[in-house]
Design a protein that fits this description.
Distance between the termini: 45 Å
Number of strands: 11
Number of helices: 5
Shape: globular
Oligomer: single chain
Radius of gyration: 18 Å
Strand content: 15-25%
Strand order of the largest sheet: 5-6-10-8-9
Length: 243
């Protein structure tokens, strides 16, 4: 999705097109507003020319196609609250930062096989609350950043947790990815929409492609399976600090 940069301001035709896709409240192009929503703790600061907030896979696809038509790069982030992992900072100035926090649906929780299918706006708090409220026998691992961090975002940044499921990317299984031309890719092999085990068996059928979308800009992950763990009878955590 890296392409030739425009000027600091997005073309008015592109802004209008984006607003027609996600609504006027889903696009920010005013420099002051853009600066505020893309602030970061990372010492190296970049500034996009606009920010867009899609609500669905179809909207992500339409935004990607619109940006491609105007030859503008897109930098996707989830909630932007995985502190220390890049947050909302793009790797370059200008372009469009796509924030996926409005895509916060927990699609399903499979109690028998022990996984959930979620969107990138789902936070650790949201997933944990959902498991508790539904009386699930399953636990989700957490991150060391904040409860409002994205589960998928942390995994794609190779984040670590605290339980036996601490390898967050290792627990992702079966991704839905919007490619630079707007097509939707389902990883895990088999016919699209018909592989019923792609969230349970990591290696799937054919080449393994999930790693292409980790800390990269080769596609926008819009849905993923995440492995969960059975709740233990007792759990305790000890931390030791020494100099």
């Amino acid at each position: 999705m890296i392409a030739r940069f425009l000027t600091d301001q997005l073309a008015s035709s592109l802004i209008q097109q984006l607003e027609s896709i996600v609504g006027a409240d889903g696009v920010k192009s005013d420099p002051t507003a853009v600066e505020q929503v893309t602030r970061t703790c990372v010492p190296v600061r970049t500034l996009p020319s606009g920010v867009v907030y899609p609500r669905s896979v179809a909207e992500v696809q339409s935004v990607v196609r619109a940006a491609a038509d105007h030859d503008v790069p897109i930098w996707p982030v989830s909630t932007g609250k995985n502190w220390g992992y890049g947050e909302r900072a793009a790797a370059y100035d200008r372009g469009i930062t796509m924030i996926l926090e409005r895509m916060d649906q927990i699609v399903l929780v499979d109690e028998q096989l022990g996984y959930a299918v979620i969107e990138p706006g789902v936070t650790y708090k949201q997933l944990n609350d959902h498991l508790k409220q539904t009386g699930s026998r399953l636990w989700a691992d957490c991150a060391g950043s904040t409860q409002y961090a994205s589960v998928i975002g942390n995994a794609l940044d190779k984040g670590r947790g605290l339980t036996p499921m601490a390898d967050h990317f290792g627990c992702l299984c079966g991704l839905d990815v919007v490619l630079p031309d707007g097509r939707l890719l389902e990883t895990g092999g088999g016919p699209t929409g018909r592989n019923t085990v792609r969230h349970g068996y990591k290696w799937g059928v054919g080449p393994y492609m999930d790693g292409l979308f980790v800390q990269s800009n080769l596609g926008v992950v819009v849905r993923a399976g995440i492995w969960l763990m059975p709740a233990p009878e007792v759990f305790d955590f000890a931390a030791f600090e020494y100099k």
